[in-house]
Amino acid sequence: MDYSEKVMDHFTNPRNVGEIPNCSACGTVGNAVCGDIMRIYLDIDDDGVIRDAKFKTFGCGAAIATSSMATTLIKGKTIQQALEVTNKAVMEALDGLPPVKVHCSLLAEEGIHAALWDYAEKKGIKIEGLEKPVSDISEKEHAHNVEIVDDPEDL
Ligand code: FES
């Protein structure tokens, strides 16, 4: 399978891997077909600007590359701007993905939405244009204690 240089770069040298202790929000999404899981952590300031974003992904190389790029793209952005970081925007920033890997970029978009959904719930606010992703497994994950590996290189 042909991957762009950018995909390979973000896969072999992923940015923003890890957790944010005491984060403002975190969301976990999973793809039921391939079984891959992605968790996104956000640190959002009082003005609604995303100060920091990190991720842990138990998944394929494209899922790791897209979470790396997605977290890079939303850092420093407002919540509304982060909603514009769609899977298409992530794919474009990575110079494309093979068609069979498009669903991996969707996981990144949904991971951001799941984390923002968590933020809205914690704050008791409604974020215009945001819907809870169907792949959101945050609650299930807490109930079953799903383990996510720290280092994608362990995969
Ligand atoms: Fe499932 Fe990539 S194969 S996220």
TrEMBL record:
Residues 3-123 form the NIF system FeS cluster assembly NifU N-terminal domain. One of its GO terms (biological process) is iron-sulfur cluster assembly. One of its GO terms (molecular function) is iron ion binding. Transmembrane segments: none annotated. InterPro entries: NIF_FeS_clus_asmbl_NifU-like, NIF_FeS_clus_asmbl_NifU_N. It comes from the Bacteria. Gene3D superfamilies: 3.90.1010.10. PANTHER family: IRON-SULFUR CLUSTER ASSEMBLY ENZYME NIFU HOMOLOG (PTHR10093). This is Fe-S cluster assembly scaffold protein NifU. It comes from Phoenicibacter congonensis.
